[in-house]
Design the sequence.
């Protein structure tokens, strides 16, 4: 049904699978256009246009929502990202500041979380204060969510605030000790600081948590090689070869280590 399609599309977007979400929404377009609730209707169409990279059309639909409901989180997030993707950073900043003001006053829905990954675009365009301010608000409003600590740590890392980034990652680790992304970012941070022992420890934990991911074996092998611990690197490589002997990195390190 149409309602089920919308729920599925939402779930796919939360998983950052925008292409699949777009396909689902396009199939349900006739249903969406018939929805009496105009806010929901315009939001769904805005999502379709945004996922299709048709940013002017996405902006128009988001503005229709905001004309009906001024502080709609979802419309504002679409609007801000569409402006940013177009390179209209001034307008994007103005929208994000609106979102920041709203979030500072009240709780926010889970849907807004998927937008955080997109903030890297703004960060790369030298809008660091706006990005960090927003990430701080998310962390403050939902301090027990490790997702926010990890993303905030990423932004801090990009600004060379390594001590603060480590503090955020360790906070995320204390909340969710079996979260693979925590150890992945910790490993990267420690490698950057040339703390090879801690980097290896982080990547070893990552490898243990996800023993079927070849990329995590490779990260551990790289750290072990930098430590000149070739014996253990060879042992890890043998396990990686069992998973995928044709992997380009596995073949590369097989030549290098043997």
Sequence:
């Amino acid at each position: 049904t149409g309602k089920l399609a919308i729920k599925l599309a939402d779930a796919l977007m939360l998983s950052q699978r925008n292409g699949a979400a777009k396909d689902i929404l396009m199939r349900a377009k006739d249903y969406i256009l018939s929805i009496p609730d105009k806010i929901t209707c315009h939001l769904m169409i805005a999502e379709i246009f945004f996922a299709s990279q048709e940013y002017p059309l996405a902006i128009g639909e988001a503005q229709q929502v905001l004309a009906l409901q001024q502080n709609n989180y979802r419309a504002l997030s679409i609007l801000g990202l569409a402006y940013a993707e177009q390179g209209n950073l001034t307008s994007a900043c103005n929208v994000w500041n609106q979102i920041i003001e709203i979030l500072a006053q009240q709780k926010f829905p889970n849907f807004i979380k998927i937008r955080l990954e997109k903030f890297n675009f703004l960060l790369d365009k030298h809008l660091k204060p706006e990005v960090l301010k927003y990430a701080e608000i998310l962390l403050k409003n939902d301090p027990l969510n490790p997702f926010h600590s990890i993303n905030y740590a990423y932004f801090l890392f990009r600004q060379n605030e390594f001590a603060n980034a480590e503090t955020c990652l360790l906070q995320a680790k204390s909340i969710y000790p079996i979260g693979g992304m925590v150890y992945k970012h910790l490993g990267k941070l420690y490698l950057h600081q040339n703390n090879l022992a801690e980097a290896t420890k982080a990547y070893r934990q990552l490898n243990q948590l996800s023993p079927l991911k070849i990329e995590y074996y490779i990260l551990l092998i790289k750290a072990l090689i930098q430590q000149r611990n070739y014996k253990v690197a060879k042992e890890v490589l043998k396990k990686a070869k069992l998973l995928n002997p044709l992997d380009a990195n596995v073949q590369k390190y097989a030549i290098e280590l043997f």
Notes: The first helix runs from residue 2 to 14.
